Amino acid sequence: MSELQEIPNQYAKGFAVFQGEGFKVIEVKQAFPGEHEPFRYLVLEKADLEMDKSGFAAVIYLPISKIVMTSTTHIPHLDYLGVSGFLAGFPNLDLISSIATRTLIDAGKVMDLGSGAQANIEKIIDLEPDWVMISTLGDDLKNLEILKEAKIPAFLNGEYVEQHPLGRAEWIKFTGALLGKFEEAKKVFKDIEANYLEAEKLISGSKFDKPKVMAGVMYKDIWYVPGSDSWGARLLETAGGDYLFKEQKGTGSVQLSYEYVLENAQEADFWLGASDFKSLADMKNADPRYAHFHAFQNGNVFTYTSKKGPTGGIEYFELGYLRPDLILQDLIKILYPELLPEYSLYFYGQLNEK
Questions:
Q1: What sign does the dihedral 312-314-317-321 (CA atoms) show?
Q2: Would the pTM count as exceeding 0.85?
Q3: Which helix (DSSP H) or strand (DSSP E) does residue 19 occupy?
Q4: Residue numbers of the domain that contains 298
Q5: Exposure string over 51-66, b if 16+ CB within 10 A, otherwise e
Q6: Rounded (10°) CA dihedral 278, 283, 284, 286
Q7: Counted domains in the chain
């Protein structure tokens, strides 16, 4: 194999891209939590390239034009790289909010592969896509062997393992390399990074009394909040919020009792991420105990699930990984409105009385 040169990432730790002469090698070092051998992929940029293809988990030849994706978080990559039309199949089309992709769905150009992790593997094989991108968050891993037998290249996307918000966004370069759109992906990421760093500077350059922030809601008497090492908590900290559950370590959700939350967060100034409630009245009807918090009494309750696609897909869950700059600006606008006077909330919405 000819000399490989790594194209360094700024934030993402889970994958690396190496350039050879007429080809790229992509290494996914962290496809899912825990220790595992890296997955190595080969992208051939010249059709007539003679080289040893053994030792790779998947090999593709550019150009490609027909793909399958399995997570809504991958859909914006196609939109931002101008290739939405490459999508041939996706599990549960109703989850997609993207206007460009919904137009293709309405025109019957994207096959519904069924719901969730049970993406219908036979349908994928019948589609004969150039490749499939698998999110390792669900049960899709078990399909790897079946796809390999069917000679369909499958790539593991471990973006959600990254805890730096820009690390998740940087996975657009991974997708870009697989689409032959690597330079475009670098440019998209650079713009998002510049936006994010500019917003971060508004906070880091100023001295404030940090507002106290609580998060989460109850399900069956258990209160779920983001762990202090999570992506969401990191964004909140960058936005200058004093997260009242920062003692709760972990990168995922942490389970707390109502009593603990009341004791530690009754005085919170803001309540962020209040599930899918439409109003304060809805919240109180669901559980009257919510009304005991000052943030509730003062109407400072915000949700990120109000912005939905035409078939109910929540845009935050689709676009949020790629656009942490918008989430950061939203949080700054909520906590310090005077710093972004012209900005309107993109993902977040404030719950009103009714």
A1: positive
A2: yes
A3: strand 15-19
A4: 206-350
A5: eeeeebbbebbbebee
A6: 110
A7: 2
